Structure formats: C-alpha cells, structure tokens
UniProtKB/TrEMBL annotation:
<feature type="domain" description="Peptidase S9 prolyl oligopeptidase catalytic">
    <location>
        <begin position="488"/>
        <end position="686"/>
    </location>
</feature>
<dbReference type="InterPro" id="IPR050278">
    <property type="entry name" value="Serine_Prot_S9B/DPPIV"/>
</dbReference>
<dbReference type="Pfam" id="PF00326">
    <property type="entry name" value="Peptidase_S9"/>
</dbReference>
<dbReference type="InterPro" id="IPR002469">
    <property type="entry name" value="Peptidase_S9B_N"/>
</dbReference>
<dbReference type="Pfam" id="PF00930">
    <property type="entry name" value="DPPIV_N"/>
</dbReference>
<protein>
    <submittedName>
        <fullName>Prolyl oligopeptidase family serine peptidase</fullName>
    </submittedName>
</protein>
<dbReference type="InterPro" id="IPR029058">
    <property type="entry name" value="AB_hydrolase_fold"/>
</dbReference>
<dbReference type="InterPro" id="IPR001375">
    <property type="entry name" value="Peptidase_S9_cat"/>
</dbReference>
<feature type="domain" description="Dipeptidylpeptidase IV N-terminal">
    <location>
        <begin position="107"/>
        <end position="372"/>
    </location>
</feature>
<feature type="region of interest" description="Disordered">
    <location>
        <begin position="65"/>
        <end position="87"/>
    </location>
</feature>
<feature type="compositionally biased region" description="Basic and acidic residues">
    <location>
        <begin position="75"/>
        <end position="86"/>
    </location>
</feature>
Length: 687
C-alpha cells in the first residue's frame, strides 16, 4: 500500500528533498557544483559536480562518509537554518574559491575543505563549533565564525587565529543579526576582499534588544531559552562595520542608518546599502577600504517604503552599476544611469552578472516568473514557456530551473555556450496527486486566483464546501504557475472541498502600488480581497460552490488572516484554522511590522486596527488555533493571548499547542498529523 499524501509530504519535506539547488558555475563554464540529496526521502544533502563537456555527474561529498549524517548543530546554526527555512541536513551550504577548485562547508559544527577535482575532503582543527565558513577568493584561507568570533585559517600553514573577538556575550562578529536574516534575506555578516587580504566584517551588539524567554511547558525541568527579540517599537541590535586585514589592521566604516541591508565587494568597489528605521530612505555607498570613508552613490526614497531587492548592487565589467529601483509604477532594472526595463515588467531579483550581461527574474503576469538578460543593448527573454523560472549564469553557461502546472517537480538544465542543454536530474518523490487547478482573475480587482477542485468532481454536479487557503500578505505569493504551490490545496480538495487560493493587495508581482495598498492597515485590504476573490469565483462556478459552508486556513500571516476572517466576517466565513498567527503586531519584529504600520508609539491606532484582541468578543464560528511552543519568529504568546481574550469574552475555541515545534514545523509526525487534524476539524465544523 502506498504512503498517504500527508505522510509522504512530511517525509519529503514537502517534496523538496532530491531537488538540485545551490548552483555554482566555474568561471570557464566547464563545471557546475550543486547540492542534492540522494533520494526524495533522504534528508542528508550531498555536494555534487557536473562536467558540462562530458555531461558526467560526480558525487563529491557524502556527509555519511564523514560521519555527518547524525548532526549535532550549535545553537547559532540551528537559528540560521530556521531563518533560512532550511529543512534538510548534511551539507546545506558551501562556498568556493574564485576558480571553483575548492569548497568549504560546516558539518555538525566541524569545518571541512574539499578539493573538487579529487573529492578529497579534510576536517580542519578549529577551537569551536563552526558557523558560515567562507573561502577566500584565492583559496588560501578560510574564514569562519565560532563563539561569536571571526577567525581565519591558513590552509597551507594551518595557522588559525582570531581576526575579531567579541567584547561581551551580546556581541558577535561576522554573523547577520536576527532582523537581517529574518526580514532582509541577508544571511551573512562578512565579505572577503577580491584581493583575499581583508574582509568587511559586521559587528552586532544585541545588548539593547529586549530579552524574551521561550519556555517548553511540556518539559518543566528544562530552563527557558533566552532570546533577544526586537519587537515593534523596541531597540534593534546595534550594527557596525569594519574592514579587517589579515595583517591585523582594523578600519571602521561609519554609517548613520538603522539597518545594513547588504554589502558587496567586487573588483570595482566595496559597496554597502543602508536603510533608515522608517524604511523610506535607502542609500548606496562606496567605501574606501584603506580609510573607511564612504561616498554616497545613490539615494532612493519612497513615501511608504523602499523595497530590498536581492542581487544588487553589482557591476558590469566596465564598472557600470546594476541596481533595481521603483519608478513609473514598476520595479525596474537600472544599469549605469539608464533604466532598461519597462514599468510593466516587475523585476524580482538580479541573479547574476556575467561580464557585460545581467541575468534577472521578472514578472509581467504576476502568476509567472521569467528569466531575462540585459546584454548592454537589449532585453532578451531566457524562458519562453509558461511557468516559474530561476537560474544562474557564469562563463557564458547558464543553469535554468523550471516549474509549471504542466509538469511535476523542478526541472534543472545546464545550457552550454553552444546552446546544448544538459539536464541535472531531480530525485524528488512524486506526490501522486491528480492536480485540477485553474488559474485566473477574480473579483472587482481582478485578483490572481487559483481554483482547485477534487479530481473526481464533475463540474455542476454538486455544490462543495469551500476552503480559502491563502497566505495573503507581503512577500508571500501563493498563486504561481507551478504544481508545487498547490499540492496541499489539492489534497484538501480531494477531501471534498472546493479550494480557493487568492493573492490580494500587499502580495508581490503586481507592482509597487498594489503592494503598498496595505500601508497602515494589514487587516482590512487583506480580508476584503479574500472576500472579493470568493465572490468572484462563486460567479464563475455558480453550481460548484456552497457559500453557506466556507472555511479558511493559513499559517503565519495566513493564520492571522484566517482568525481575522471568522472574527470580523462571520457572515462569510464559517470556520477557521489559524496556524502560528500574528494576533498583536506589537509582538512581531521591528523591520517587518514598522515597514507597514510605522512605529507603535507614533501610530497606536494603526496597530489597534490590525490587532485581533478587540474582536475577541465577536467570535461565533469554530476557530482552531495551532502554535509551536518553540517558535522564535511568531512566538506562542500570540496564540495564548488571543485565547485568553476569547476566554475572557466567553467565546468557545480550540487551541492545539505543539511542544518543541518551531515556526517551520519540521518534525515528520507533526507535519503529517497537522494536515489530518485540520481536515477533521473543518469537516466537523462545516457539517
């Protein structure tokens, strides 16, 4: 008997195991290094290499041969993986030298360097558990963080020394602070100079950040874990930058803004990007490594907020700056002093710069993400079929990943300079679902919407109970032309629901104006758009939807939206499952929350409008609250305080606490049974 979908989804980490990822192309385009597990149920990630000339694929590092399959991770690495939503184990990250001849990685806290040609890996002697090791461009040294100190080891002599040592227990060197990792997609805290003789290093001091205590009530003999959490309106960590030389020199790089969003050090410039606390002003500086003096290159402002875009700043071979800015109603690619994309093409990220060409991802239709290049003269589409694409480019060779509704899983292809395509196989498991997904637009605002019906349903034969299945908030787009986006939705549909997934205002892909509609109100537009989408789909499927039985489920922002729906619109929504919901935005972090709602001391009424507590007495529909008690992103206090408010108002509800579970819910048994329990709750609630 084959495994059920919930069990298989849990075992495969939602079908991500076995998928190639983490690509590095050698400068000559002859080799592609990447990560992949050996099967779709194997959680141990290995390092592989593909020869693009011979098409031969080779296993370079198997952690099991290094006794690294049973991981013992330092707390800092566990936190880093939680921030990056890393669900696998083994070699989950690596870096190479400039020529891609060596790679280094951390495994169970140990530091390893491998010669890619021979596959010979060696463990280096280090004084503590290793975080984020990075090879110097010339391959002579490897830098790493341990115990909050940034250290460097000479791979020839074996000399290992500290370049920067924390002055107190609240200080770290070379690590991204919580806000950078969780909200800015910056997972690193140091950058090698192209000359390999110095590094730009972040010093973060969390002393001003308030201490929260994450307890495990199921194990009262264990002390609570202390965490410094920068909640909205409270102090952030203090970050500073230094250019630290291998010769022991140390030069401060001053900046005044609250946030360091990113840095880059290439042969053209050492660059840093900063953001003010209100996030309305972003500044790009170049830095003189010898003196630390900064020169303002450009300043971007917006009355709402300035978006952080990955992959920039970068430079072409001639030194032209590559940047992404909002103008004319679109997020647009800027090269030098020229805006090269139209406002109708929403640039998502810059993926690579290869000499004089820029590879970037962008959307015309928000349900699709395509690859484009700018070659200095014209825009050229790289992907032409419908779907969601990403990729890398170096040495005239490209790596293309493709997903769509027409094919299962992720397809990965290496495109050589001569145009020949070389596939990199995926070992991912097949979900075993017969997807029945229709993408379209619905409602007055023509919202991107997916309608997911049971595979066995004959259209017009009966009216099905409805399940809204949104994320519905900033950064979280659900309606995309790829099968992986709808696997859980299809499974819920197979249980007898018509499932609707809608991306309302605030979600990405439709341009700055659409995203900024949630400024000062995260609740009203999001809820209105779910109702708008529901009514629009009901008009399209008048004989298939039973609007007297409508439920909604979601996680994180989606959990907030689900609870919001039954509290404020019980006339529309008849049951809700709210997983890890944000219930009071004062309890969520500074960078995310203040971007949309401002500072709570300056705009308390805005926070009240988006809080759920004042609506507790309105509850008249079944509500299931689910929360991991070890969640350090949306802490369990959100659910517990809402539950207390509901109890005080005499409103019946259900709470499912998950002992030892974080925001990711990575445990297989938990992930499997959560799906089953939700279906059972929804069926009973809707009758």
């Amino acid at each position: 008997m084959s495994e059920s979908f919930p069990r298989l989804s849990a075992r495969t980490r939602r079908f991500t195991l076995g998928v190639p990822r983490g690509f590095t192309i050698s400068p000559d385009g002859g080799r592609v290094v990447f990560l992949r597990t050996k099967s779709g149920t194997d959680p141990v990630t290995c390092l592989w290499e593909l020869d693009t000339d011979t098409h031969v694929e080779r296993l370079v590092v198997d952690p099991r041969t290094l006794h690294g399959d049973d991981e013992d991770l330092p707390p800092e690495e566990r936190a880093r993986r939680e921030r990056s939503r890393e669900a696998a184990g083994g070699v989950v990250a690596y870096t190479t030298d400039k020529d891609v001849t060596q790679a280094c990685f951390a495994l169970s806290g140990g530091l390893y360097v491998v010669e890619l040609a021979s596959g010979q890996a060696r463990r280096l002697d280090v004084p503590g558990a290793v975080i984020d090791p990075r090879l110097s461009p010339d391959g002579r040294h490897v830098a790493y963080v341990t115990g909050g100190a940034l250290r460097v080891q000479d791979l020839i002599t074996g000399e290992d020394r500290a370049l920067a040592t924390p002055e107190s227990e609240t200080v770290t060197y070379g690590l991204a602070e919580f806000i950078a990792a969780e909200e800015m997609d910056r997972m690193r805290g140091y950058w090698w100079a192209p000359s390999s003789d110095a590094l730009l290093v972040e010093r973060a001091d969390e002393a001003p950040v308030r201490v929260w205590h994450i307890a495990d009530p199921a194990n009262p003999d264990r002390p609570a874990a202390d965490q410094r959490y920068p909640a909205a309106g409270t102090p952030n960590a203090v970050t500073e930058l230094f250019v630290v030389g291998l010769d022991g020199s140390r030069v401060a790089v001053p900046y005044e803004e609250e946030y360091l969003t990113t840095a880059a050090w290439d042969p053209h410039a050492l660059s840093i990007v900063t953001l003010t606390r209100d996030q309305r002003t972003m500044r790009l500086f170049t830095v003189d490594p010898a003196t630390g003096a900064t020169t303002l290159v450009r300043e971007d402002t917006d009355p709402a907020w300035v978006d952080i875009v990955t992959g920039v700043p970068a430079h072409l071979d001639d030194g032209s700056l590559v940047w992404v800015a909002s103008s004319g109603g679109g997020n647009r690619l800027v090269v030098g002093d020229r805006t090269v994309t139209p406002p109708t093409l929403q640039v998502r990220a810059v993926l690579d710069v290869d000499h004089d060409s820029v590879l970037f991802s962008a959307s015309g239709d928000p349900t699709e993400i395509h690859l484009w290049t700018w070659d200095g003269h014209s825009l050229l589409p790289v992907s032409t079929r419908s779907g969601v694409f990403s990729g890398r480019m170096a040495g005239g060779v490209g790596v293309l990943t493709e997903q769509s509704l027409d094919a299962e899983g992720v397809s990965t292809t290496v495109v050589r300079r001569d145009g020949m395509a070389v596939p990199i196989p995926s070992f991912a498991e097949r979900p075993g679902l017969d997807l029945r997904v229709s993408l379209g637009r619905s409602g007055r605002r023509e919202l991107a919407t997916a309608v997911v019906l049971p595979s066995w349903h004959e259209q017009g034969s009966r009216r099905l109970p409805v399940l809204m299945d949104p994320y519905g908030g900033p950064h979280g787009q659900r309606v995309l032309n790829r099968r992986g986006a709808f696997l859980e939705s299809q499974w819920f549909a197979e249980q007898g629901f018509a499932v609707i997934v809608a991306d309302g205002r605030g979600t990405p892909g439709r341009g700055p104006e659409f995203e900024r509609a949630v400024l000062n109100d995260l609740a009203t537009p999001a809820l209105e758009d779910q109702i708008d989408a529901l009514q629009g789909v009901a008009e399209q499927y008048p004989d298939d939807l039973d609007l007297t039985r409508v439920a909604i489920r979601g996680w994180s922002f989606g959990g907030f939206l689900a609870a919001l729906a039954v509290l404020r619109r019980p006339d529309v929504f008849h049951a809700a499952v709210a997983g890890a919901p944000v219930t009071d935005w004062r309890l969520y972090d500074t960078c995310y929350t203040e971007r949309y709602l401002g500072h709570p001391d300056e705009q308390p009424e805005v926070y009240e409008k988006s809080s759920l507590f004042a609506d507790a007495a309105k509850l008249e529909r079944p509500l299931l609250l689910i929360h991991g008690l070890a969640d350090d992103n949306v802490v369990a206090a959100h659910t517990l305080r809402l539950s207390s408010a509901l109890l005080a108002a005499g409103r019946q509800h259900s709470v499912l606490p998950l002992s030892g579970v974080t925001h990711m819910t990575p445990q297989e048994v938990v992930a499997e049974n959560l799906l089953l329990l939700q279906v059972d709750f929804l069926k009973k609630s809707l009758g």
